């Protein structure tokens, strides 16, 4: 084991994110929520990413443009379970959208987490903007964007490759693709002629990397290398992480656990036990601790209100003092 990698902390956060997601699925299945989509299967890569971002507000900090499976990134950044439950239950107390967006579509201005969008892949063209601002302001911040493999067929992804690599105007943009080999029910094998999505970066003269996103140690090292490259060279890098999708696409496809994909938490727990870093009993206690906090979050959320009909236009037009985005 590499002593510098905080494997115990990574494991805790992976479990926290998984337990949150499984609680959200139960909320959906019991009729207390309407739709679920999220990130079980991406915990190893995403937690390592969230822990390595320079968190804060403004272009001197890192920008994160995520997608609807990025929950483990946000949990690693410090998001509490109650945030996920509030959004799942469309409550007025949900600070990302005040109960008006899908679950796991967060936006946290104080951490430079740009609003997550339902139309897939738009984040790749929006990310050009924050990376451009960081370049113009000569800051040390970088922009990180992530999304799925199927979405890379969209023009926004191509725009991202073109705009981030213009000779003499390269952008400090870490372009991630979390490849789970599915686009809802469409298999990647039937869609992509390229062997690796990462290879597309080569045509733009970009450094490219591929990592096993189910392996926490390898993910940590790959992210550290990629972030350091983009931060110091102020150039783009395309990193492909091969990940799992453990509950299918979303509640639209049943949100049931699949048994034929690799579970990154299981892999890490086997390693931690083998290297005598954690015992089976300690691991069980971690799961129980988060089960309890997820129930506490749900019980608190059950006491909170849904948005009123009158608030439907809040934050839509500028000039509404009751709903000034600058207060966030
Ligand atoms: C612009 C757009 N087209 C189609 C959809 C419908 N849609 C939602 S998720 C999805 C599949 C995305 O697959 P991928 O990019 O691989 O991400 P994954 O969900 O597998 O993480 C599609 C086609 C959409 N939301 N937005």
Structural features, described:
This protein is α/β, with parallel strands linked by helices and 328 residues long. It has a single domain, classed as Thiamin diphosphate (ThDP)-binding fold, Pyr/PP domains (Rossmann fold). 38% of the residues lie in helices and 9% in strands. The protein has helices spanning 7-29, 43-52, 71-77, 81-88, 122-136, 155-164, 216-233, 264-274, 280-301; strands at 63-65, 143-145, 173-179, 182-183, 186-187, 207-212, 237-242. The protein has a five-stranded parallel β-sheet, with helices on both faces. Strands 4-5 form a two-stranded antiparallel ribbon. Strand 6 (207-212), helix 7 (216-233) and strand 7 (237-242) form a beta-alpha-beta unit. Helix 1 (7-29) packs across helix 2, helix 1 (7-29) crosses helix 3 (71-77) and helix 1 packs parallel to helix 4. It is globular, with a radius of gyration of 19 Å. The mean pLDDT is 95. Bound molecules: thiamine diphosphate.
Form type: globular
* Overall pLDDT: 95
* Percent in helix: 25-40%
Q: Please give the radius of gyration in angstroms.
A: 19 Å
Instruction: State the order of secondary-structure elements, H for helix, E for strand.
Output: HHEHHHEHEEEEHEHH
Give start-end ranges of low-pLDDT stretches. Answer: none
What is the chains' assembly state? single chain
Largest sheet: 5 strands, parallel
Range of strand content: 5-15%
The CATH superfamily bears the name Thiamin diphosphate (ThDP)-binding fold, Pyr/PP domains
Tally the structural domains. 1
Side-by-side strand order of the widest sheet: 1-2-3-7-6
CATH topology: Rossmann fold
Bound molecules: thiamine diphosphate
Count all strands and give the number.
7
